[in-house]
Amino acid sequence: MKIGIPKEIKNNESRVGMTPAGVLELSKLGHKVFIQSTAGEGSGWDDEDYHAAGATILPTIDRVYDKSDMIVKVKEPIEQEYDLIKEDQIIFTYFHFASNKQLTEAMMKSKSVCIAYETVEGEDGSLPLLTPMSEVAGRMAVQQGAKYLEKPVKGRGILLGGVPGVPPGKVLVLGAGTVGIQAAKMAAGLGAQVTVLDIDMKKLRYVNDVMPPHVVTEFSNEYNIRKHIKTSDLIIGGVLITGAKAPRLITRDMLKEMQPGTVIVDVAVDQGGCFETTRPTTHEDPAYIIDDVVHYCVANMPGAVPYTSTVALTNVTLPYVLKLANMGWEDACADDKTLAKGLNMVGGKILFSPILEAFGWKEAMI
């Protein structure tokens, strides 16, 4: 199979869809890999690294799309890429269709085969291709939140860990999934007082078992959320419903109950966000303020640490890339139920029902 790796062109996105190690594995099996020139530079690999691994370097993104049977990316195609995508071409990447109607309609029009990293799901409900980026984003949420609590960037002027004689900051984590656990771990490591809310008692028991005593858990409901936002310095939203829009847990009116300079970080922004006032931002202009509350809502947060993120992501995507290349998408998905869950769209037909529900569509094709 011919596999294409275009350079990511979303704002401040420095990750790349494949490492030289992945290119080598595909090349050894006789597959042809085309990579756009300089695609890997942001993550630490130059064209020579890919060439030495067996890739053919192409100068432009349109040539990569034109020559490839399958495109392996990190982020969803953006408008400049829509017309480059061909009928029956496999696009293997993060899509987050439920929060982007324009993208959904464009991919339907292209009649491509869209396999979304974020909905590849194991029989146990695990999300193997989303997990590593959730781990990165959860840890970064605290790192960035701590920065934006500083007064020069309009935060409360709080040091999360405190110092002797001064109490630590308070962190509220919404969701005890991968993002929430990693965020709680980082915040606890800094010495903050951490509260984790979730509706899944099994997850709360796990958090309670593995975290230190200054991480406490409570059941998530509106009453408890409203109680904690009044005193929290940093609030992290990490709630996920696989492939669907995130639930809105903090409404606009709740901002008035927060202390001026409170920082909220919405890690669910790719899925529409779990705060009503969320709007996607970029690393170039990451934060904005509403009602004296600092919002950090960068849609590709792991893109700020591209080497770590690329290696973590491709560690888990490569086995599926190899299966798709060796077997073709139909046989690969028939053979692997986990991969089949990632099949969101084929030939203009939506196969993943949460996308239809997100837009109120009744049919699988419009």
Automatic annotation (TrEMBL):
- What PROSITE patterns would the database entry show? ALADH_PNT_1, ALADH_PNT_2
Where in the sequence is the signal peptide annotated?
none
Q: Where is the Alanine dehydrogenase/pyridine nucleotide transhydrogenase N-terminal domain?
A: 4-137
Tell me the protein family, please: Belongs to the AlaDH/PNT family.
Name it: Alanine dehydrogenase
What is this enzyme's class at the first EC digit?
oxidoreductase
**What is catalysed by this protein?**
L-alanine + NAD(+) + H2O = pyruvate + NH4(+) + NADH + H(+)
Segments forming domain Alanine dehydrogenase/pyridine nucleotide transhydrogenase NAD(H)-binding:
149-297
So what EC number does this one have? 1.4.1.1
MF terms per GO, please?
alanine dehydrogenase activity
Keyword annotations of the record:
NAD, Oxidoreductase
Organism this protein belongs to:
Christiangramia antarctica
